[in-house]
Amino acid sequence: MPEPNGTNRLDRIERALELLVDDHVHFREEHKQLLTAQVVLTDRLDRFIDSSAKAHRLIEEKFAELTDKLNGLIGYVARLRPPAG
Questions:
Q1: I need a surface site. Which of 3, 11, 40, 84 has the fewest CB within 10 A?
Q2: Which of 30, 29, 27, 9 is nearest to 19 (CA)?
Q3: Which residues in the chain show pLDDT less than 70?
Q4: What distance in Å separates the CA atoms of residue 67 and residue 18, rounded to the nearest whole number?
Q5: What is the pLDDT of residues 25-45, one digit of tens each?
C-alpha cells in the first residue's frame, strides 16, 4: 500500500537525484582527467616536434658534409685516371 503524503514518491525522486549527482561527480572527474591528458599530450607532441626538427637539421648538415666529401673524392679519382684515348 502506498505511503501517505507521497513519501514513497519522494524517496524515489531522492534516489534518482542521488544517482544524477553521483553520475555528474563521476563525469566531472573523468572530464578533469581528460583535460589533464590533453595538456600532457600537447606538451609531449611539442617536445617531439622540437626534437624531430633538431634531428632533421642535423641530418641535413651531415648529408651536406657527406656530399662535399664525395664530390672531393670524385674529383680526386677523376684527376688520377688518365684520359681515355
A1: 84
A2: 27
A3: 1-5, 85
A4: 72
A5: 999 999 999 999 999 999 999
Angstrom distance (rounded) from CA 32 to CA 39: 11
At residue 82, φ and ψ (nearest 5 deg) are -70, 150
Grid cell listed for 9:
514518491
Instruction: Tell me the CA distances in angstroms from 65 to 17, 50, 73, one per residue in order.
Output: 71, 23, 12
Q: Write down the pTM of the prediction.
A: 0.59
| Cβ atoms of 2 and 8 closer than 8 Å | yes
Assigned C-alpha cell, 70: 664525395
The answer to whether the Cα torsion of 43, 48, 50, 51 is positive or negative is positive
Q: What is the amino acid identity at position 23?
A: D
Q: How many CA atoms lie within 13 A of 7 on its CB side?
A: 5
